[in-house]
Amino acid sequence: MVEFDPRTPNLARMYDYMLGGVTNYAVDREATDRLAELVPQAVPLARVNRGFQQRAVRHLAASGVRQFLDLGSGLPTQGSVHQVVPDARVVYVDRDPVVAEHATALLRDESRAAFVQADLLDAAGVLERAAAFLDLGRPVGVLLISILHFIPDTDGDTGGHARDGTGGHASGDTGGHPRDGTGGHARGDTGGLTSGGVRGPHAAVAALREAVAPGSHLVLTHSTSPGRAKPAAGRGTARPPARIRSFFGDFTLVEPGLVHAADWRPDRPRLVGEPSTASYLMAGVGWKTRPRQV
Ligand SMILES: C[S@@+](CC[C@H](N)C(=O)[O-])C[C@H]1O[C@@H](n2cnc3c(N)ncnc32)[C@H](O)[C@@H]1O
After folding, report:
1. Which of 112, 144, 146, 255 suits 70 as a labelling partner, its CA being 20 to 30 A distant?
2. pLDDT tens figures, 35-44
3. 148 CA distance to ligand 1 centroid (A)?
């Protein structure tokens, strides 16, 4: 049980407030209002981000995907995946214990959605626990929405093949329902490790790509910078588009490719004079093609 400190704002609750939600406290609203004064694009960007997520999730649902793994989910509110595709099974994952506490309560009555407290960098552990709720032998929509720019590169993290060649794909009994939110780590943890033993975001995402079934999709948003990877405002790593593209590995990007989030299959044309808020946020959807029949 997490003790909430009413004086400490929480990123996920601030995010909920930015999206118009009610799972937040005065301290979160005040911190968000201060942030919006300093960075006027923060709130519009959060909404562009959520809008992209919803369009991408609807695209996957239209392609037949009915299982989702939402990594760095924040709070499952305000048009989250299980609300957009009610007949899907969804596992939300976040490492933040405050998120875990709220999310577990928010999902208590949901039979098709569960929460797992875990770190993306432990990709094998994430997959093992998700496998208690999802059938990883079937296509999964893997969401990495505004999470990767919070995880800095580590030396040698090229995103090469995971050490065990399975990406930590679970087999058989995983020993527990993911709703327990215990954040336990998998035995024989290889997720997020390259063959050189380096742990980092590229290796973790490579392990996920390798583990999921053909027909699975990777959906991500990421803040960008025109030059080299560098610290973004606050705690984060804005990466150049080519580095963001590399998270998709050999997955095939669906049209229109990796673009500014507002430009990914927009619901409506941009109005004349409407400001573009999303030039710092790249978005894309890639899918794992099925092996060719011989
Ligand atoms: C900006 S919020 C994004 C929430 C949601 N995906 C969205 O875009 O609406 C980023 C979330 O990523 C989580 N996070 C950051 N690093 C993580 C990691 N290594 N593993 C799991 N979650 C992480 C944070 O706790 C936070 O809730």
Report:
1. 255
2. 999 999 899 9
3. 8
